[in-house]
Design brief:
This protein is of the alpha+beta class and about 160 residues long. It contains six helices and seven strands; from the N terminus they run αααβββαβββαβα. The strands form two sheets. The chain has a five-stranded antiparallel β-sheet. Strands 4-5 form a two-stranded antiparallel sheet. The radius of gyration is 18 Å and the shape is globular. The N and C termini lie far apart (about 50 Å).
């Protein structure tokens, strides 16, 4: 990547660039939240780490960034990038689609797809390790429409006594 390309990406991902162009990647959404949040009384945090999603029926791990916000001492997790729409990999076309799940998401659900670099931002009572994150199942965000939080999944645990050879 050339230095000019890096500078253009940096410019596009500023709050002004996002507003003018209407396009950005995760950093643009984060910077926009950081700019607007304090103006309406919110404390905004920039979080980064690992993410996992399904792409072309394959599990994909990547670097990603998202926000946390604080209101009256309570912290909430937000991924405006994933919550605003998606790019279909085979079409290379962005499709707008509000996914409310990614706004103020329950930390017990968010951890299935987002693993922050700083463990405190898991916002969980019992923190998990990166190895555990990588091994957990990937659930589509709509799965959580049927459960209040991931802890309800305990009802669906299955044990196997069979020995695979």
């Amino acid at each position: 990547m050339t230095s000019l390309t890096k500078e253009l990406i940096k410019l596009i991902n500023t709050p002004e660039g996002v507003y003018k162009n209407g396009k950005c990647v995760c950093e643009g959404y984060i910077r926009l939240y950081e700019y607007i949040g304090p103006k309406i009384g919110l404390k905004i945090y920039y979080l980064s780490g690992a993410s996992k999603k399904e792409e072309n029926l394959q599990l994909s791990f990547g670097r990603h960034a998202w926000n946390a916000l604080e209101v009256k001492g309570n912290k909430y997790l937000i991924d405006a990038t994933w919550g605003s729409g998606s790019i279909k990999e085979n079409e290379n076309k962005y499709t707008k689609e509000l996914k409310e799940f990614y706004f103020c998401t329950n930390p017990e659900d968010f951890i299935f797809t987002h693993f922050p670099n700083e463990s405190k931002w898991q916002l969980l009572e019992s923190l998990i390790k990166n190895e555990e994150f990588e091994k957990t199942a990937l659930f589509h965000y709509t799965f959580f429409n049927y459960f209040k939080k991931a802890s309800e999944l305990n009802y669906f645990k299955i044990s196997f006594d069979y020995q695979f050879s």
